[in-house]
Design a protein that fits this description.
- This protein is 48% helix and 16% strand.
- The protein is built from twelve helices and nine strands.
- The mean pLDDT is 94.
- An eight-stranded parallel beta barrel has the order 1-2-3-4-5-6-7-9, surrounded by eight helices.
- With 325 residues, it is α/β, with parallel strands linked by helices.
- The termini are close together.
Length: 325
């Protein structure tokens, strides 16, 4: 049984044969279902220049979702600080929080959101990647500007992390941490231990608070889950080998081009740390991740081809929380 709060991360998959506009409509459909299923939060990731993932600003998706759902919290997972002026981020999310009190999260991350260097430089108006110190200043500035905006209701700030350094910064600033186990699963436990050991209470968070994001593909059978996970495995293998991204392939296309030995081993090693399979297996895996990491909350990212299959996966996991296994 999964006895922790459950949330979701939406990466806005652009399926092969579909358009970014289709992906937007799918986001809206999935958001409505997550609200109905009782998920606590829905965060939107920031990506750029990817044929497989829509380049939709998280603040706009969060605003639309807040306006078209009844209760689910919405936010960024995350807005990438180096790409934006801190005052602009604070104004946008403070406004959103004032419009939807008690429902807005501001997840802040560091990465450029793209593997395309010209796009990364364009987002930074020609500047190179942010240094550790620049990133720290940006996050601190965003937090400071939230008060100065003066709208009263504030979003709940979170720091996204996938490394020891990110976890240490969250601890130093006294922020809750959202750890990207779906990106760097080998580092999760050690980084979170460092976070808890170094945590300094703040006005934002009086004690350590941990959300762990897990790639989760749940289906009615193990075989169906493996088929649904195939397209994302193809995308991962391409990224590992430095190949240009492609549109998100269909399950049939992914199955027709099996991974080579080295790619298959790398993807299998990654998948072993995530949660894939039928309901009981996914429930056991999520429970183990929660125990090993001491998570206070689990966030599921479900990058599968069909939005109906995505909703089905979320529904099966939600049933674990309500009915147990």
């Amino acid at each position: 049984m999964v006895d922790l709060p459950l949330s979701a991360l939406e990466v806005s998959v652009v399926e092969d044969g579909a358009t970014p506009a289709d992906a937007l409509r799918n986001c809206r459909t999935v958001a409505a279902e997550l609200d109905r299923l009782g998920y606590d939060r829905l965060w939107f990731a920031e990506h750029h220049h990817s044929p497989a993932i829509g380049a939709f600003p998280p603040v706009l998706l969060a605003a639309h979702t807040a306006a078209t759902t009844a209760r689910i919290r919405v936010g960024s997972g995350g807005v990438l600080a180096p790409n934006h002026a801190p005052l602009t981020v604070a104004e946008q999310f403070a406004t959103l929080a004032a419009l939807h009190p008690g429902r807005v999260d501001l997840g802040i991350g560091r990465g450029p959101g793209t593997f395309h260097e010209p796009t990364a430089r364009a987002l930074r108006r020609g500047a190179g990647p942010a240094t550790d110190e620049e990133y720290r200043r940006d996050v601190a500035a965003i937090l400071g500007f939230l008060d100065e905006v003066g709208l009263g209701e504030l979003p709940e700030p979170w720091l996204l992390a996938s490394s020891d350094a990110g976890a240490a910064l969250a601890a130093a600033l006294g922020l809750p941490v959202a750890f990207a186990h779906h990106i760097r699963p080998d580092n999760t436990v050690a980084a979170l231990e460092r976070y808890r050991d170094a945590f300094r209470p703040s006005r934002w968070c009086p004690e350590p608070r941990v959300l762990v994001c897990v790639e989760t593909v749940c289906a009615d059978t193990e075989e169906e889950a493996a088929v649904l996970a195939g397209p994302m495995d193809v995308i991962k293998a391409g990224l590992l080998n430095g190949r240009a991204e492609t549109p998100f392939p269909t399950p049939a296309a992914a199955a027709a081009h099996p991974l080579g030995g080295r790619d298959r081993e790398a993807v299998a090693a990654f998948a072993a740390h995530q949660a894939r399979g039928a309901r009981e297996a996914v429930g056991a895996r999520l429970a183990r991740i929660a125990k090993d990491t001491g998570a206070d909350e689990l966030m599921l990212v479900t990058p599968v081809f069909d939005p109906a299959a995505r909703v089905r996966s979320f529904a099966l996991v939600a049933d674990l929380r309500t009915n147990g296994t």
